Amino acid sequence: MPDQDRLTFAIELARQAGAFAKQHFQAIDALVIESKGHQDLVSNADKDTETLIRAALQEHYPDDGIVGEEHGRKHGSSGYDWVIDPIDGTANFVRGIPQWCVAIACAKAGEAVIGVIFEPSSGEMFSASRGGGAFVNGKPMRAAQTGDIGQGSIGIGFSGRAPAMAAATAVATVIERGGVFFRNASGALMLAYVAAGRLLGFMEEHMNSWDCVAGLLMIEEAGGRIVKPDAASNLDQGTVVIAGGANIFDEIKAIAEESFSRQ
Questions:
Q1: DSSP assignment, residue 240?
Q2: Looking at the predicted structure, is the pLDDT value of residue 37 above 60?
Q3: What is the CATH number of the domain that holds 247?
Q4: Which of 1, 43, 134, 170 could be 259's S-S partner, Cβ–Cβ 3.0 to 4.6 Å?
Q5: What are the tens digits of pLDDT across the range 70-105?
């Protein structure tokens, strides 16, 4: 695989960053927490963990670009960009809920080529490379095969960047059709769960690139389907996210598009 070195590096870096962040998580009372907006929190752990990741990237891949949640954009000259979220699920992290992760992806010309999501609390390492498959702790992942919405749960994300009623409409529609909705406040983890077949699919009207690039690649490599992000704008502007198992994707897409367009 042409990007195997980057994948191996990203897996080890995610593990190191996760261990570092977990030290902060275990000393939760000492966290310094700020609000960036509606339900959008940041702590010193987020900032320090991203600094650790950026330093490692600068040392090993100095010509690559970086897109990070906490410390902005660095443009590179190699054609590769690293897309990082040091702690996705900060709202959980700062309240002591063990549902958060480190997300690291690498894109070439705007298209993801590797993706890594590490959940330190469970020790689960999700990883994927374009054309190389998707894995959790080294075992192949497979997106859900069912075409019946009543056979599982669908992740529905929400952020203050989109109308609240869009997510509420999607939740109501899923329930009306016999399904169940799921939200754990970590979009990256929910996408990893879609790749692993734990969730039937996922939808959110807008996600930043650092929350979704790694997981969307995993879903594709696990045999699922996604609405493809625009490679020219996704890294800096984010994207709508609709994904699911191959046999249920069309229904999830229809629900998402109807819910989002009503607002």
A1: E
A2: no
A3: 3.40.190.80
A4: 170
A5: 777 899 999 999 999 999 998 898 889 999 999 999
